[in-house]
Design a protein that fits this description.
Elements lengths: L5 E12 L10 E16 L4 E6 L4 E6 H6 L15 H11 L7 H18 L8 E7 L9 H16 L13 E2 L3 H19 L5 H8 L2 E5 L2 E4 L6 E7 L6 H14 L1 H27 L3 H20 L5 H11 L4 E5 L6 E5 L6 H13 L3 E7 L5 E3 L6 H8 L2
Parallel strand pairs: 3-5
Antiparallel strand pairs: 1-2, 1-13, 2-5, 2-7, 3-4, 6-13, 7-8, 9-11, 9-12, 10-11
Helix pairs in contact: 2-3, 3-4, 3-5, 4-5, 4-6, 5-6, 7-8, 8-9
Length: 396
């Protein structure tokens, strides 16, 4: 068991193209978002395991000796396993959460306990730890906040228990794990996601683990070899959406108008494939004309998504505001509100960007400038922090 403090971060995600079409067997492109979740793991000797999630007001502590005395044989030792409904019920008993506990808190705590007990039970004794997790990602906005949480937990616990080696070398500010360790992190993070979402696709945790851009098609996930980091505006309309209802609406529209909707889904698939091709070219030799193609693809996909019935007046307003400034936007995720992305071409003057952000904020939206294609899960030095991590720590 390692004795040093560990600082880990992992990115969120956005869907670039392929929303809804992916449900019907088409290709989707997901990219990492340079808004990150941070985790600090600190071993101590007070006999407690503490979990603090300041973003959502959660602070929980368990007695390690009590956890050690519990029958945790319901957790398979060894390989990464899928949590069963029986395991979930027993974890609820272990967690000791009140009946009126908020859903967000219950799911976050259950995911933590599942990963802590499953990964750490190979130790001679369960470790006494203080874990704090905080995030730049708004929860419930379709930006992969729960996946980034699970990835950070898996990476920190596996490293602390020496299941994988700490990749930081002397003088490093930040580093990443080798491929085989990332695969193990991703497997465990997926189980954390299952505790939270039941039956996730695995896309969110894969993007958070590997970073860059991923292609998802009929259950198969693969990384794009070269993916440029693109500057974007991320706008949260703050309009809540019901993903299940939106997916069902597209399915019903397909059944009602198959000869109209099926070609739309095929066209969205072609947009994803063309975007994949262009991103590959940009990774080798970026050129201004490639941004023009990306903008055209954004516009076409947004029109298709509106035709599928997953648009919203707030998203139309977002597109109108940015179009008036020569910028191109589309929804990301389920639609019906939620978030949208706006591509920022190189050379765009900062006053123009700030004016656009201000115009979107005046609509009642939250808007910030960030990038996509960020690195996946990373470990940071506790002694030579980069400004991003230090700022996050200072905010606790």
């Amino acid at each position: 068991m390692l004795s040093e403090v560990l600082l880990v971060s992992a990115p969120g995600k956005v869907i670039l193209h392929g929303e809804h079409a992916v449900v019907h067997g088409k290709v989707a492109l997901a990219v990492s978002l340079n808004l990150r979740t941070f985790l600090r793991l600190q071993p101590h000797s007070n006999g407690k395991v503490d979990l603090s999630l300041p973003n959502i007001g959660i602070k929980r502590a368990w007695d390690v000796a009590r956890l050690q005395s519990l029958d945790t044989s319901f957790l398979e030792q060894g390989d990464v396993t899928t949590p069963t409904s029986e395991q979930v019920e027993k974890l609820k008993e272990v967690a000791g959460l009140p009946d009126d506990c908020a859903v967000t808190e219950r799911l976050a705590v259950l995911a933590f306990l599942y990963l802590y007990l499953s990964i750490c039970r190979k130790q001679r004794a369960l470790p006494s730890l203080d874990i704090v997790v905080w995030s730049e990602l708004p929860p419930g906005a379709g930006l992969g906040s729960s996946a980034a949480y699970s990835v950070c937990l898996a990476a920190a616990l596996l490293t602390a228990c020496e299941e994988i080696a700490n990749p930081l070398k002397d003088g490093d500010c930040v580093n990443r794990w080798p491929k085989e360790d990332l695969e193990l992190i991703n497997k465990w993070a997926f189980q954390g996601e299952r505790m939270i979402h039941g039956n996730p696709s695995g896309v969110d945790n894969a993007v958070s683990t590997w970073g860059g851009a991923l292609r998802y098609h009929q259950g198969k996930i693969s990384s794009l070899k070269r993916s440029p980091a693109l500057q974007i505006l991320l706008t949260n309309t703050k309009v809540p959406r019901n993903t299940r209802a939106l997916v069902a609406g597209v399915r019903n529209r397909l059944l009602k108008f198959p000869e109209i909707v099926a070609p739309l889904l095929t066209s969205i698939d072609a947009i994803s494939l063309e975007c994949e091709r262009v991103l590959g070219e940009m990774g080798e030799a970026p050129a201004p004309e490639q941004y023009v193609v990306l903008e055209e693809l954004i516009d076409m996909n947004q029109h298709h998504l509106n035709a599928l019935g997953v648009g919203h007046a707030s998203l139309d307003q977002l597109c109108q505001v940015t179009r008036a400034r020569g910028l191109h936007s589309k929804l990301t995720g389920a639609g019906g509100g939620g978030c949208g992305i706006t591509l920022l071409k190189p050379g765009l003057e900062q006053p123009e960007v700030e004016a656009t952000k201000q115009a979107l904020t005046s609509c009642g939206f939250d808007c910030l400038e960030t990038s996509i294609g960020a690195p996946g899960v990373s470990i940071h030095s506790a002694t030579s922090l980069d400004s991003r991590v230090q700022q996050a720590l200072d905010g606790l």
